[in-house]
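#dry-run=false #mode=assembly
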Amino acid sequence: MSFTPGSVDRRIAALAALAMGLQLIDATIPSPVPGIKPGLANVITLVALLALGWRAAMAVTLLRIVGASLLMGTLVSPGFWLSLAGGLSALSILGILAGLYPRHLGPVGLAVAAALAHTVGQFLFAWAVIIPHPQLPWLLPPLLLAALLTGLVTGILTASVLADPRIRPYVRDRSRTPAG
Amino acid sequence: MNLGLRWGDVVVVMLAATLVASSFTLTYAPASGALRLVVSQAGESPRTFPLNEDRTVDIAGPAGLTRIEIHEGRARCLRSPGSQGICERAGWLERHGDMAVSLPNRLVLQLQGDGTPFDSMHF
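#status=ok
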């Protein structure tokens, strides 16, 4: 049995490093409301999903969450568990929807679905475990609206990353449509 | 820029917009439970007034009279002896948990519905 890293492992490591950097940038962006963040690292999750597949996206996301929380000193803090709950929810919905790419669904739809799943999963986890207050749902609508908007933005960013000629050759393109 | 849009994107975004819109309407719809105004004054047991009948109430306190107006399902502190007008400036109390206070008259006006509201949120 050999543990030599293959080329996919290297790509996963590179994407995870990029995602950690983006999550750190994310954390430094001031937000008017706690819980609202651009979620820039989700661009990398989507790129990993569309270029390397769902298992790679899972690996990149878990590495990103653990790595970024180590760097920020929030490992096993509530923020870490919230991040994990959101990340796993987003990955679940991406696993369901990824098969529709690229024939029926583009990066924007995937990103919006992932962003909403992230927010809903995180919210349910927060409500169930961290702040089980009957009126916490009052916070949910603005968070969902923010998720819709940030999902659109990350979707557009993902589309532009995927259109980059240096990324393009790695992206699954089962529909055989000519790249625009 | 080519966004690679497919019909699925339109469906996802429309479903997402519907979810967001319905979350707003469902969450922020006016509570069905009847609101009542609870007047608590130091040294007295709290008095409760329903909000569905318009009336004005005068509450005597150590500093003078506080006049409370109940009108169309909301309540406000119309006049109060406090020199800074803090009780009046609380404005109309419309939601569960809304509060107006007159310290000179040792008086707290609060709307109560069903359940308990947030006192504060910390992150």
